[in-house]
């Protein structure tokens, strides 16, 4: 875990140092400190620490003769991924329809996916927060904030 | 400096019924969140920040402080009745709380926990008031050299002390610094890391960042854990008279409460250590100094008192570096800085100069919150005991909805929703791979201040580093930072070598 996370962070730091910060980090004349200086410093800290972490973990793995790479179990991977896909799908829906319409559907379907089968619990849990949001939005519109 | 009349008027403002109602709302909500396992203080504050947008600055901060205090006290309820801490810092409370509840004394255990929480919190709040103001008065005399050196020291200190690997802590801090520089450069006006998005001109919006990395990411972690931990049994409260806490029983725990408050306040004042360290340190100290150490872990009320007093003392004490120097030492303090920023107030020593009335009203509000915590906890004991039975599969969808609704209501639109989602993925990986979230968030929050002070220091010195010799405080902090980094690096290396030797021995 440490080895791969270290490598991942180091790769990100290299990307930041070689492309993202030089291209998008800001240009122009500055007295004293350049706009890119602090971000570059942060990326160097990331790179140094991540490389050290990956190196130390690699030595530990070699000494214990453990595998560097293990394929995760597909079922476990799917279990970790579906909540992200669910929320992403919900964000796509919210982009097209009002949140107060989508919310009961989102809460209710997630409850069903998590194994809740009592209809009154599903109904109440899905509707009450959406009604609360509707009330809050209506109030904010009435006082002219939204 | 603020006069006696102003202090009195600040207390009067804190005791106004509107103020009390707002703090009560915060404490109540905090209690409920604290009682529900899986929801923690950071999640609660992140979700509540959008609610405070339409409040006055004082009301918003008082509400969030009430919430923060409420979660600390509430988390003991699930630790005692469910053996599942509402907050990680209440894990020490489980050690004696659950055995005591299982032995038929749940009410007694809850009341010991509540009273220790309130005493610890109140004493640490008084300490904060006594220490923060002289601290801030001294800090006001600091120039950019001193402030830059102190901020760098604090970041390295937090990276080392926040738990987990020092290397991971520093890497997370580096990421926070990079994200903290996003937006228009204050000196040149150059757009930095905005990728052409106008929404990023003022920097990464703090609300999607905290909601994504703290609340939404936590729900993804909870969903992952929910599969493994289904169905825990709750101990029910009885009406048995023998289960009531007598004054003598409470009095016997007072020495432990006072000692543990001292431990908690000390740990809280040091940035990065957090309430879990404070609670376990105090528990260990109480056990070592007890006449009957063997009774600890089997339902000793002093164990509950030690853990709860220290846990609750850490929170007000963690505001000492915040109000004194502007350095948030914990996640909840960093979130408070975010809330202050949203309301256009720069928290730190300048608050003493620019908004002294607000500072004193907040301090008064904190004392009111401590007292309300007692009332809410005492009279709501049975209701909160029932709240512990709310299953996580009901809590998780509602919290996910609240996260997204908070962003929508603030008018961030699709950009905000995508940002919150991106930060949720980022936060999920931080948690899964154990990168210090505190260091990341604190680095993100203090980067604008660090950059401004560094820039001023570079300009004033003309690039001559020898100027530090004329600034002893700044020089001392530079030396402390170097020593601290060397010490943390060396102890990390020794631990790694120890593990290697153990592995080769096996």
From TrEMBL, chain B:
<keyword id="KW-0812">Transmembrane</keyword>
<feature type="transmembrane region" description="Helical">
    <location>
        <begin position="390"/>
        <end position="407"/>
    </location>
</feature>
<feature type="transmembrane region" description="Helical">
    <location>
        <begin position="322"/>
        <end position="346"/>
    </location>
</feature>
<feature type="transmembrane region" description="Helical">
    <location>
        <begin position="142"/>
        <end position="159"/>
    </location>
</feature>
<keyword id="KW-1133">Transmembrane helix</keyword>
<feature type="transmembrane region" description="Helical">
    <location>
        <begin position="474"/>
        <end position="493"/>
    </location>
</feature>
<protein>
    <submittedName>
        <fullName>Tricarboxylate transporter family protein</fullName>
    </submittedName>
</protein>
<feature type="transmembrane region" description="Helical">
    <location>
        <begin position="413"/>
        <end position="430"/>
    </location>
</feature>
<feature type="transmembrane region" description="Helical">
    <location>
        <begin position="12"/>
        <end position="36"/>
    </location>
</feature>
<feature type="transmembrane region" description="Helical">
    <location>
        <begin position="358"/>
        <end position="378"/>
    </location>
</feature>
<feature type="transmembrane region" description="Helical">
    <location>
        <begin position="204"/>
        <end position="221"/>
    </location>
</feature>
<feature type="domain" description="DUF112">
    <location>
        <begin position="21"/>
        <end position="441"/>
    </location>
</feature>
<feature type="transmembrane region" description="Helical">
    <location>
        <begin position="42"/>
        <end position="65"/>
    </location>
</feature>
<feature type="transmembrane region" description="Helical">
    <location>
        <begin position="437"/>
        <end position="454"/>
    </location>
</feature>
<feature type="transmembrane region" description="Helical">
    <location>
        <begin position="112"/>
        <end position="136"/>
    </location>
</feature>
<keyword id="KW-0472">Membrane</keyword>
<dbReference type="Pfam" id="PF01970">
    <property type="entry name" value="TctA"/>
</dbReference>
<dbReference type="InterPro" id="IPR002823">
    <property type="entry name" value="DUF112_TM"/>
</dbReference>
């Amino acid at each position: 875990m440490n080895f791969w996370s270290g490598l991942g962070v180091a790769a990100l730091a290299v990307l930041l140092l070689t492309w993202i910060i030089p291209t998008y980090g800001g240009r122009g004349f500055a007295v004293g400190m350049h706009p890119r200086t602090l971000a570059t410093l942060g990326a160097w800290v990331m790179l140094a620490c991540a490389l050290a972490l990956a190196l130390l973990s690699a030595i530990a793995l070699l000494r214990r003769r453990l595998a560097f790479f293990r394929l995760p179990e597909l079922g476990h991977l799917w279990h970790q991924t579906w909540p992200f896909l669910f929320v992403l799908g919900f964000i796509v829906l919210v982009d097209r329809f009002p949140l107060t319409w989508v919310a009961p559907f989102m809460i209710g379907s997630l409850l069903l996916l998590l194994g809740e089968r009592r209809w009154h619990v599903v109904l109440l849990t899905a509707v009450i927060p959406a009604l609360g949001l509707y009330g809050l939005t209506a109030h904010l519109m009435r006082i002219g904030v939204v | 400096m603020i006069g006696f009349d102003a202090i009195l008027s600040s207390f009067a403002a804190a005791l106004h019924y509107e103020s009390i109602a707002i703090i009560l709302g915060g404490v109540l909500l905090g209690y409920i969140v604290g009682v529900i396992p899986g929801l923690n203080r950071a999640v609660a504050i992140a979700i509540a920040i959008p609610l405070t947008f339409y409040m006055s600055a004082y009301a918003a901060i008082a509400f969030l402080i009430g919430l923060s205090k409420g979660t600390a006290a509430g988390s003991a309820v699930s630790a005692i009745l469910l053996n599942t801490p509402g907050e990680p810092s209440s894990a020490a409370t489980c050690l004696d709380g659950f055995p005591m509840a299982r032995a038929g004394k749940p009410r007694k255990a809850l009341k010991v926990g509540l009273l220790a929480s309130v005493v610890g919190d109140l004493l640490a709040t008084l300490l904060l008031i006594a220490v923060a103001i002289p601290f801030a008065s001294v800090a006001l005399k600091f120039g950019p050299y001193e402030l830059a050196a102190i901020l760098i020291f604090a970041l390295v200190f937090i990276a080392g002390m926040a738990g987990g690997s020092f290397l991971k802590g520093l890497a997370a801090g580096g990421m926070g610094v990079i994200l903290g520089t996003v937006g228009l450069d204050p000196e040149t006006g150059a757009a930095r890391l905005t990728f052409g998005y106008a929404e990023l001109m003022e920097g990464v919006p703090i609300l999607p960042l905290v909601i994504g990395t703290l609340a939404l990411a936590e729900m993804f972690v909870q969903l992952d854990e929910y599969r493994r931990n289904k169905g825990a049994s709750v101990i029910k409260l009885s009406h048995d008279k023998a289960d009531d806490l007598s004054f003598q029983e409470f009095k016997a725990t007072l020495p432990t409460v006072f000692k543990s408050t001292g431990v908690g306040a000390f740990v809280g004042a040091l940035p990065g250590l957090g309430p879990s360290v404070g609670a376990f340190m105090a528990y260990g100290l109480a056990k070592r100094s007890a006449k009957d150490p063997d009774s600890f872990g089997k339902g000793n009320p002093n164990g509950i008192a030690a853990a709860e007093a220290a846990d609750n003392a850490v929170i007000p004490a963690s505001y000492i570096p915040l109000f004194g120097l502007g350095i948030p030492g914990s996640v909840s303090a960093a979130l408070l800085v975010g809330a202050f920023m949203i309301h256009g107030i720069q928290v730190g020593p300048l608050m003493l100069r620019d908004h002294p009335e607000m500072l004193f009203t907040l301090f008064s509000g904190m004392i009111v919150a401590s007292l309300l915590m007692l009332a809410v906890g005492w009279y709501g004991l049975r209701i909160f005991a029932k709240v512990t039975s709310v299953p996580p599969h009901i809590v998780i969808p509602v919290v996910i909805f609240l996260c997204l609704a908070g962003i929508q209501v603030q008018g961030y639109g699709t950009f905000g929703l995508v940002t919150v989602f991106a930060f949720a993925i980022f936060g999920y990986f931080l948690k899964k791979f154990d990168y210090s979230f505190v260091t990341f968030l604190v680095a993100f929050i203090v980067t604008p201040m660090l950059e401004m002070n560094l820039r001023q220091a570079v300009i004033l010195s003309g690039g001559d580093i020898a100027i530090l010799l004329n600034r002893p405080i700044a020089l001392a902090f530079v030396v402390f930072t170097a020593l601290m980094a060397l010490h943390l690096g060396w102890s990390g290396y020794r631990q790694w070598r120890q593990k290697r030797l153990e592995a080769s021995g096996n």
